[in-house]
Amino acid sequence: MRVPTAAITAGSLIGGWQLARKTGNRPLGGVVLAAGGVAAGREWARQTSPGVTGALVATYLAAFGLSHPLAKKIGSWPAVLAVSALTAAASYAAADRHPRP
């Protein structure tokens, strides 16, 4: 059974942040982010073109990077939820909506 990449990206962004926050171990949160990125990236590579895969990887990385300055403006939870939602929407639109067999 295939897990939608929208769920992988949103779950790893939120889960990685929460794990880092709860444990105080930022690298541990980074492991979750990296695992989610690899899992989603592999699926994107199977389901889409190299250009779309690259754009989705860039979106995922940008979401992580942008969540930090955004958190200073609107708070941690809203920032992480916002970038997770945007990344999930991009993943759904580009890869999950019409998966290749």
Based on Cα principal axes, name the global outline: globular
End-to-end separation? 12 Å
Q: How many strands?
A: 0
Radius of gyration: 13 Å
Helix content: over 70%
* Biggest sheet descriptor: none
Structural class: mainly alpha
Brief descriptors of the model:
mainly alpha; 101 residues; globular
Could you write a compact summary of the structure shown?
The protein is mainly alpha-helical.
Describe this structure in words.
The chain is built from four helices and no strands. By secondary structure, the chain is mainly α. It has one domain (5-96). Helix 1 (5-23) runs antiparallel to helix 2 and helix 3 (50-74) packs antiparallel against helix 4. The two termini are 12 Å apart.
Strand and helix layout:
Blueprint: H1 5-23, H2 26-47, H3 50-74, H4 76-96
